[in-house]
């Protein structure tokens, strides 16, 4: 049975309901969900613009095995593989000039999605893969932004500890003394391992993104000590659904000593994990297999979305980014609104818009690494009660994919991928698949690819 767009997707206030079809559609929805729950992510294929189940049994491999092996096909529900012969044929066509970049035609790619869904990281990856990466000067310019990200990460954790578990904080004694006593097995100190004085020094410290000053080594040492406590890391895992935990927190805090060094220059890995809020429209041109690409990244916060209209003309491809890990987070702009629900609402407005009636849409279910880590500690069913797959990563991903396919009332072709935008090799494989399958059709329709 195909996953046709429903007029009444479960628990999604953004989709218009139809009383006339409610009873019939609810029965169809339930049968579809049951099938999804019983199959693996590898058993989904693409057919006539709808996601359908593949035939026969499929072996379900772990997420970690799949990512480690670079086997993104099993993590791409809805994208049929392109054969090696087809890949060679397209590459040959490009080399022989059948796809001609020597004119002013280009493929216009629009990156859409809510804030912090990974759009800007995709642009950074395109720069790494197709524009020789970041220059030394560009790396240096990111230093204050890396510093600010470190502080934002640790301040969110410290404030959450103060609010949610103040018994981790002691009024006297240094954090170093508490750590030593804790290592020696003094059980009584396990609830009083942090000092207000140290935490206040962290909270009071500020950096300016327009300054070239070094990171304060004293503050860096205190951050390192705070993060070294197993109790703090356990708190972050256990309570992450109750406060705003930035996705790169573990990375930033575990690297704080290196980042605070006097001779520190950001690496490309640092830049991929450093957030700079996108305001307005940022465009980036590059070539992929001889095809001129023009990619637009626009701000995902609500206040930025009104600016998208300026990018709608002659769009060849939309990449819509969703952070899988946002299912237990609230909007910064409206703390009563679930972020994943907001993404569903936004996707509804995009996929059913008259502006995109002839546009191919790629759906990036992003931040799979963060999602996999938090799912056992923050159950998906706590936020989406109709989900019943527990902490099975494949079932959870397919449930979220199902929610997005349900709002596709216009019947557009949607090509979903599960992605980890900070992993360059993963994004390289995903974009190779995008090029070989969707982009070829779009180029032919637009006249850029001659047949």
TrEMBL record:
GO terms for molecular function: G protein-coupled receptor binding; G-protein beta/gamma-subunit complex binding; GTP binding; GTPase activity; metal ion binding. Gene3D superfamilies: GI Alpha 1, domain 2-like, P-loop containing nucleotide triphosphate hydrolases. Mg(2+) binds at residues 120, 278. Keywords: GTP-binding, Lipoprotein, Magnesium, Metal-binding, Myristate, Nucleotide-binding, Palmitate, Transducer. SMART domains: G_alpha. GO terms for cellular component: cytoplasm; heterotrimeric G-protein complex. Pfam families: G-alpha. Residues 1-98 are annotated as: Disordered. Signal peptide: none annotated. The keyword Lipoprotein applies. One of its GO terms (biological process) is glucose mediated signaling pathway. Residues 37-50, 63-97 have a biased composition (Polar residues). GTP binds at residues 116-121, 247-248, 272-278, 297-301, 366-369, 421. PANTHER family: GTP-BINDING PROTEIN ALPHA SUBUNIT, GUANINE NUCLEOTIDE-BINDING PROTEIN ALPHA-2 SUBUNIT. This is Uncharacterized protein.
């Amino acid at each position: 049975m195909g996953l046709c767009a429903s007029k009444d997707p479960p628990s999604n206030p953004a989709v218009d309901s139809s009383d006339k079809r409610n009873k019939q559609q609810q029965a169809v929805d339930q049968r579809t969900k049951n099938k999804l729950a019983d199959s693996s992510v590898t058993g989904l294929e693409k057919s006539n613009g709808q996601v359908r189940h593949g035939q026969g049994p499929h072996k379900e491999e772990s997420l970690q095995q799949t990512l480690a092996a670079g086997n993104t096909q099993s993590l791409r529900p809805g994208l049929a593989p392109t054969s090696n012969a087809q890949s060679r044929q397209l590459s040959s066509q490009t080399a022989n000039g059948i796809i001609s970049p020597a004119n002013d035609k280009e493929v216009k790619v629009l990156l859409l999605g809510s804030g912090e869904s990974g759009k800007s990281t995709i642009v950074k990856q395109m720069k790494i893969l197709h524009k020789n990466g970041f220059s030394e000067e560009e790396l240096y310019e990111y230093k204050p932004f890396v510093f600010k990200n470190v502080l934002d990460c640790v301040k969110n954790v410290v404030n959450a500890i103060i609010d949610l578990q103040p018994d981790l904080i002691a009024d006297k004694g240094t954090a170093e003394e508490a750590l030593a006593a804790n290592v020696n097995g003094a059980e009584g100190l396990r609830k009083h391992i942090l000092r207000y004085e140290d935490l206040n020094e962290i909270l009071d410290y500020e950096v300016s993104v327009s300054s070239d000053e070094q990171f304060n080594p004293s503050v860096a040492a205190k951050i390192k000590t705070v993060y070294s406590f197993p109790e703090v890391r356990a708190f972050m895992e256990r309570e992450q659904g109750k406060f705003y935990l930035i996705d790169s927190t573990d990375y930033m805090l575990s690297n704080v000593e290196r980042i605070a060094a006097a001779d520190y220059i950001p690496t490309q890995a640092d830049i991929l994990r450093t957030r700079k809020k996108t305001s307005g429209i940022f465009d980036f041109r590059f070539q992929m297999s001889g095809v001129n690409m023009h990619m637009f990244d626009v701000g995902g916060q609500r206040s930025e979305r009104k600016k998208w209209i300026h990018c709608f003309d002659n769009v060849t491809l939309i990449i819509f980014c969703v952070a899988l890990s946002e299912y237990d987070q609230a909007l910064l702009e409206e703390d009563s609104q679930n972020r994943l629900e907001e993404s569903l609402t936004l996707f509804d407005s995009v996929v059913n818009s008259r502006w995109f009636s002839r546009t191919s849409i790629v759906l990036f279910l992003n931040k799979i690494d963060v999602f996999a880590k938090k799912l056992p500690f923050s159950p998906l069913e706590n936020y989406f009660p109709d989900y019943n797959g527990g902490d099975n990563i494949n079932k959870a991903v397919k449930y979220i994919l199902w929610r997005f396919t349900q709002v596709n009332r216009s019947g557009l072709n949607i090509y979903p991928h599960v992605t980890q935008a900070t992993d360059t090799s993963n994004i390289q494989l995903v974009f190779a698949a995008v090029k070989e399958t969707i982009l070829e059709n779009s180029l032919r329709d637009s006249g850029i690819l001659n047949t």
